[in-house]
C-alpha cells in the first residue's frame, strides 16, 4: 500500500469539493468489493485525480500504487487478473490509451484478461495542460482493438451504473470518463446496459448521437431546439463498442440528419463508428460529425474550450440549428 | 538484412527426401530421449521441494532434458523453415532446470492453481518450451508435429489462449516482468504461495518497461518473484553492449533493490542448486534476479561463433551436423 493523505487534508477536501463525481469510481468499487466481487485497483501516481485514494483507504491490501509507470501498471494488471481478481486501473486517458496502447492490446485484450481500464480526464477536459494531456484519439485507438469493449459515460451516476454492469461483463473494458465536474444527466437508478444505447428521442429533423460529456450538451441543445418547434432527438451512445447498430438505424430511418457529437477527433471516434454503420446499412439520413476537427486543441480552461469548439449546450445548438436552415 | 540472415538455406519443400529423413530421425530421437528422461509419471512435486543439492542422477536428467530441448528445437524449426535456434540453445539448461527441478508443477494439470508460474520475456524461445510442455502432458505431443502450420496453436511466440501450460503470452519484449509483478501481487493477495519465474533476454534489458517492473517488484517486496536473465551477449543487430550497453547489469539490479546472483547458465548443477536455494529462502523480502551467463547457440560450434543464427534455417547437412554435436555432447 502507499502513503495516502489524511482524509481531512486540505488537498483531499478541495478535490472532492471541486469535482464531486470523482468519488464515483472509488465509492462504486468499494460497494462492489463489499458485495464480494474480487475487485482490486491500481493507480499510477494519480490516486487523488481519479479518487482511488478512497478505495485505497478502505481496502489498502487491494490497492496497488504503481507510481509513474503506466505501461507496467497495465501489464501487471493483466498478470494479476490471471490469479482470479478483477483489476480496475486508472490514469489519464491520454497516457492509458496512447502510451499503453500496445500493453492493452497484447496483455489485456489479446490475452482476454478481465481488466477494467479507466481513462479519466479524457478529451480536452484538461484544458490548459495542453495536447500531452488531451485524449482526442482514444476512442479511435481503443475501438480498433479486438475483444475490447469501449464505454464513454456521460456523468457520475451513469459511470457508477456502468461499473456495476462491468462485474458481469466477459470482456476487458476501456472506460472513458471525464474529470468529475460533469453536469448530471441521469438519476442514480437510471437503467444501464452495456451495448444498449439510451434513446432520449428520435427526431424527424435531427437525431443527435452523443457520448460522454457531449450528452449533457446535446440534451440542452435538443430541448432548446424542440422548444422552438423543431423535431430533434438524442441517442446517448455510451457504449461505442459494441455499437448499438439498431439504435443508429432507428434514427437513420426516421431522421433527415444524424449529428454525432463527441469530445474527440471526428476521425475514427463515435462519428466514425456511426458512419460505418450508415455506410453499410444504408438509410436516408445525412451524417454530420461534430467534435474536434482533426486538429490539436488550443490552450484554455476547459469550459472556454468547450465554448470555443462548440461542445457546450449553446455550441451544439448552433451547430444543429445551422443544419436546420 | 540481418533479420533474415541464413548461413545456408535449406530445401523448403516439405516433400523433399532430405526433409522426410531428417524428420523421421528426429522423431525417433525424441522417443528415445523421452525414454531416458525418467520423470516420474504422475509426480506432483519435483525433487527440489525436498531441499538440498541435486543428485548426480538428477543432474544427468537435467542435461538430458536440455539435449531434448535442443533436438526438438531443430526438428520443429525444420517444419517452420525459420526459427530462433541460438536463442533457445542459450537457455536450454534454464528450461530443463526450471521445469524438471525447480518449479512446482503437476504433470497433465497446466491450470493447477498452486503451480509455480513461468513467463518468458524472450518469447521467441518458445520453440524450446513447447516440447517440454508436451512432455509434461499439458497437451498432446502430436501438436508439435504441426508446429506453425495453418491453425496450429504453436507459433513462434507462446500464446496462453491457445497453448496449455503457457502462463502468459509473450512476443512483445519488455512486458513479461510486469506480468510477473502482477502475478506475484495477485498470488500474495489470494494467499497462494506460488513462485513466479520470469526468463528475460539480455537485449530485453534495453526496454524501459523492464525497469519500471524492477522498481515495482522491489517497492512491493515481491519475494516470490524471480527474474532470470539469459545473458548470452547477443541480440539481432550485434553484441548487446555494442548495440545499447546494459552493463554493469548486476549493479543495476542491485541498485533497483533486487537480490542478485550470478551463475553459469549451462551448468545444471550450479543452476539447480542456486534455484533451490532461492526458492527455499523464505526470509528474503526482495525479489531476486539471477544473471545466467550463457553462450548464444550453445552446443553447436558454428552457431556459437556466428550471432546471425538468432534467426535462421538449417540446410539438411547442417541440421545433421547440429544433431551430431548435440548427441555428441551427451558422451
Automatic annotation (TrEMBL), chain A:
Residues 19-184 form the Transketolase-like pyrimidine-binding domain. The keyword Membrane does not apply. CDD domains: TPP_PYR_DXS_TK_like (cd07033). Its cofactor is thiamine diphosphate. Keywords: Thiamine pyrophosphate. InterPro entries: PDH/Transketolase (IPR051157), THDP-binding (IPR029061), Transketo_C/PFOR_II (IPR009014), Transketolase-like_Pyr-bd (IPR005475), Transketolase_C (IPR033248). SUPFAM superfamilies: Thiamin diphosphate-binding fold (THDP-binding), TK C-terminal domain-like. Gene3D superfamilies: 3.40.50.920, 3.40.50.970. Coiled coil: none annotated. Belongs to the transketolase family. PANTHER family: PYRUVATE DEHYDROGENASE E1 COMPONENT, TRANSKETOLASE-LIKE PYRIMIDINE-BINDING DOMAIN-CONTAINING PROTEIN. This is Transketolase. It comes from Mesorhizobium denitrificans.
From TrEMBL, chain B:
CDD domains: TPP_TK. Its cofactor is thiamine diphosphate. The lineage of its organism: Bacteria, Pseudomonadati, Pseudomonadota, Alphaproteobacteria, Hyphomicrobiales. Residues 67-317 form the Transketolase N-terminal domain. It comes from the Bacteria. Keywords: Thiamine pyrophosphate. It comes from Mesorhizobium denitrificans. Belongs to the transketolase family. This is Transketolase. Pfam families: Transketolase_N. SUPFAM superfamilies: Thiamin diphosphate-binding fold (THDP-binding).
Amino acid at each position: 500500500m502507499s502513503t495516502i493523505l489524511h482524509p481531512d487534508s486540505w488537498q483531499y477536501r478541495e478535490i472532492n469539493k471541486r469535482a464531486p463525481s470523482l468519488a464515483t469510481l472509488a465509492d462504486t468499487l468499494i460497494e462492489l468489493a463489499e458485495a464480494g466481487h474480487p475487485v482490486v485497483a491500481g493507480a499510477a501516481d494519480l490516486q487523488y485525480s481519479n479518487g482511488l485514494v478512497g478505495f485505497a483507504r478502505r481496502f489498502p491490501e487491494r490497492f496497488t500504487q504503481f507510481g509513474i509507470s503506466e505501461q507496467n501498471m497495465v501489464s501487471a494488471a493483466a498478470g494479476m487478473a490471471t490469479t482470479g481478481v478483477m483489476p480496475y486501473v486508472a490514469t489519464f486517458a491520454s497516457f492509458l490509451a496512447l502510451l499503453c496502447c500496445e500493453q492493452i492490446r497484447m496483455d489485456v485484450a489479446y490475452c482476454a484478461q478481465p481488466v477494467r481500464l479507466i481513462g479519466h480526464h479524457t478529451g480536452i477536459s484538461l484544458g490548459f495542460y495542453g495536447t500531452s494531456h488531451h485524449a482526442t484519439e482514444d476512442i479511435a485507438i481503443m475501438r480498433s482493438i479486438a475483444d475490447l469493449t469501449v464505454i464513454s459515460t456521460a456523468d457520475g451516476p451513469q459511470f457508477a451504473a456502468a461499473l456495476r454492469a462491468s462485474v458481469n461483463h466477459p470482456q476487458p473494458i476501456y472506460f472513458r470518463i471525464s474529470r468529475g465536474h460533469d453536469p448530471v444527466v441521469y438519476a442514480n437508478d437510471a437503467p444501464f446496459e452495456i451495448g444498449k444505447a439510451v434513446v432520449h428521442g428520435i427526431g424527424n429533423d435531427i437525431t443527435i448521437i452523443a457520448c460522454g460529456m457531449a450528452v449533457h450538451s446535446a440534451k440542452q441543445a435538443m430541448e432548446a431546439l424542440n422548444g422552438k418547434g423543431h423535431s430533434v432527438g438524442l441517442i446517448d451512445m455510451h457504449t461505442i463498442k459494441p455499437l448499438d447498430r439498431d439504435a443508429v438505424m432507428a434514427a437513420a430511418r426516421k431522421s433527415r440528419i444524424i449529428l454525432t457529437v463527441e469530445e474527440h477527433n471526428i476521425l475514427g471516434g463515435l462519428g466514425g463508428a456511426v458512419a460505418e454503420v450508415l455506410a453499410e446499412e444504408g438509410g436516408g439520413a445525412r451524417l454530420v460529425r461534430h467534435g474536434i476537427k482533426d486538429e490539436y486543441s488550443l490552450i484554455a480552461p476547459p469550459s472556454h474550450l468547450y465554448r470555443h469548439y462548440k461542445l457546450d449546450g449553446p455550441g451544439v445548438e448552433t451547430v444543429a440549428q445551422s443544419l436546420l436552415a | 538484412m540481418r533479420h533474415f540472415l541464413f548461413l545456408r538455406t535449406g530445401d523448403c519443400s516439405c516433400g523433399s527426401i532430405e526433409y522426410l529423413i531428417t524428420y523421421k530421425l528426429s522423431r525417433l530421437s525424441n522417443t528415445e530421449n523421452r525414454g531416458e528422461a525418467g520423470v516420474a509419471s504422475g509426480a506432483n512435486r519435483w525433487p527440489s521441494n525436498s531441499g538440498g543439492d541435486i543428485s548426480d542422477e538428477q543432474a544427468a536428467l537435467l542435461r538430458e532434458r536440455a539435449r531434448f530441448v535442443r533436438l526438438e528445437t531443430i526438428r520443429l524449426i525444420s517444419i517452420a523453415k525459420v526459427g530462433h535456434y541460438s536463442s533457445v540453445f542459450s537457455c536450454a539448461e534454464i528450461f530443463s532446470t526450471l521445469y524438471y527441478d525447480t518449479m512446482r508443477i503437476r504433470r497433465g494439470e497446466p491450470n493447477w492453481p498452486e503451480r509455480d508460474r513461468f513467463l518468458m520475456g524472450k518469447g521467441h524461445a518458445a520453440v524450446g518450451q513447447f516440447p517440454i510442455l508436451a512432455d509434461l502432458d499439458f497437451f498432446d505431443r502430436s501438436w508439435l508435429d504441426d508446429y506453425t502450420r495453418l491453425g496450429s496453436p504453436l507459433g513462434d511466440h507462446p500464446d496462453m489462449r491457445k497453448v496449455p501450460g503457457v502462463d502468459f503470452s509473450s512476443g512483445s519484449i519488455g512486458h513479461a516482468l510486469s506480468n510477473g509483478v502482477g502475478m506475484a501481487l495477485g498470488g500474495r493477495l489470494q494467499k497462494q504461495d506460488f513462485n513466479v519465474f520470469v526468463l528475460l533476454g539480455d537485449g530485453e534489458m534495453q526496454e524501459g518497461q523492464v525497469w519500471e517492473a524492477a522498481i515495482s517488484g522491489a517497492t512491493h517486496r515481491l519475494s516470490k518473484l524471480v527474474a532470470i536473465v539469459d545473458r548470452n551477449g547477443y541480440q539481432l543487430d550485434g553484441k548487446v553492449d555494442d548495440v545499447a550497453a546494459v552493463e554493469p547489469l548486476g549493479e543495476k539490479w542491485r541498485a533497483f533493490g533486487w537480490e542478485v546472483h550470478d551463475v553459469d547458465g549451462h551448468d545444471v548443477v550450479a543452476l539447480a542448486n542456486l534455484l533451490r536455494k532461492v526458492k527455499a529462502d523464505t526470509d528474503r523480502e526482495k525479489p531476486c534476479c539471477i544473471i545466467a551467463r550463457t553462450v548464444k547457440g550453445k552446443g553447436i560450434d558454428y552457431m556459437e561463433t556466428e550471432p546471425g543464427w538468432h534467426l535462421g534455417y538449417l540446410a539438411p547437412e547442417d541440421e545433421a551436423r547440429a544433431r551430431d554435436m548435440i548427441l555428441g555432447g551427451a558422451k
